[in-house]
Design brief:
The chain is an alpha+beta fold. It has a domain of 107 residues: 2-Layer Sandwich (Alpha-Beta Plaits). Helices cover 21% and strands 10% of the residues. It has 5 helices and 5 strands; from the N terminus they run H-E-H-E-E-H-E-E-H-H. It has a 3-stranded antiparallel sheet with strand order 2-3-5. Strand 2 and strand 3 form a beta hairpin. It is elongated, with a radius of gyration of 47 Å.
Amino acid sequence: MTNMIGEAWRAGKSFVTGLNITFKEMVFRPAITVFYPDELDTVPAWFRGIPLLKTDLLTGEYNCTSCGLCVEACPVNVITLEWHQDPITKKKVADRYAIDMSRCMLCNYCIEACPFDALVMGMDYELCKVDPENMVYEMEYLLRLGLKYSSVAQPGPKAKKGALPPWVFHELTGATEEDIQDEAGFLGRAPQAKGYTPVLKAQYRKEETVVDQPPAPAPAKVEAKVAVAPAATPGMVPPDQPPANPGGTESGNKDGEEAE
């Protein structure tokens, strides 16, 4: 009898507690319902939607090197990779890269295993299909969705000890095919030979800035020195004139001749 009373008490207490929580959520807290599909919820940067392939926007090449580490890391074997070696560049070229999203568990292991920043967990979650066979996404679709997470590939600094890996918070760049900078680049371009130099489109070329050189110093003005004769002083004969007759002037000489 005591046990029955105790069980009834605990059942009634849990029932009242649940109703109390429901009443508080209904009355005292604002509604958080998102009216999907008219409204789309914002997802955080670490959201795991679908593994996507990234592109190097400088040349249009996909970052994947067909190393196969993502295939080995996948615990449910949903990644299919087929490749061949280019006889000219000696690099692996992916013939097929597909992911079966009907069985993908979104574990992120493929992204963690990739050493070339070729994969990213996208924020896309509207992937429902009526037929599960249609949820096998091929390479072109993965590259097209991955464009908005792509950028110009640049070797980044080494991660500090204890810091979060770069794939945890992926960056949404919003890039499109128009953002491929190479004139010969296109989406899905295979890796080019080592030392390939892209020819950039006009809007991505850096204008050559002419450095303004300081003006040459003006030649020093040579001032002509004019010799100025010293001013004559009384009793002093200039050096370029003959000395005057001592003892008198011309009129005095003529007077003397007439006197003779």
